Amino acid sequence: MPEIVQTVARFGFLVLLWLFVFAAARTITKDLLAQRRPATAGPSAGPVSGPPSSGRSSRPQSPAQAAQWLVVTTGELAGRRFVLSGQPITIGRAPDSTIVIRDDFASNRHARVLPVDGQWMVEDVGSTNGTYLGRARVTTPTPVPLGVPIRIGRSSFELRP
Fold it and tell me: Tell me: the pLDDT tens digits for 3-47?
């Protein structure tokens, strides 16, 4: 093989190797910066609206009435609060979800939080990576106590009064 062909092949290989290194570094940097980027406002990024609550009643509140907010504690929407209005709340990557999370570990339709018989339940709706309540994986509709984290991918949610 002529010497010029070998030299061109060597330089070509080095160029391809450096292109690979730069592409890998760019991808890693992009992923790290994406975790710090604030959420953009979208059609479902706002709080879930519910009917205004009237004054306090003298009767004791049920657990579902005691929880007023679904608060995002970790993830890209951290600090956001969603009103619990008595309607199911869907969580996932799909644009028609009540709470849209952009997370590679979340499914399009991942989970939902819904009131059942006076208490809030979390239900996994066929996600790939699972929904967790505390440290336990949710396999059936499970009651959610106040302050116990619901984990979906990199995001965590809690019911708050």
Answer: 999 999 999 999 999 999 999 998 888 777 665 554 443 444 444
- pTM beyond 0.90: no
CA distances from 6 to 14, 18, 65, 68 (A): 12, 18, 76, 71
Instruction: Match 């579902």 to its residue by tokens.
Output: 64
Contact 138, 130 (CB under 8 A): yes
- The span from the first CA to the last CA of the chain, in angstroms, equals 78
Separation of alpha carbons 93 and 151, rounded Å: 14
Nearest to 102, CA basis, from 148, 152, 157 = 152
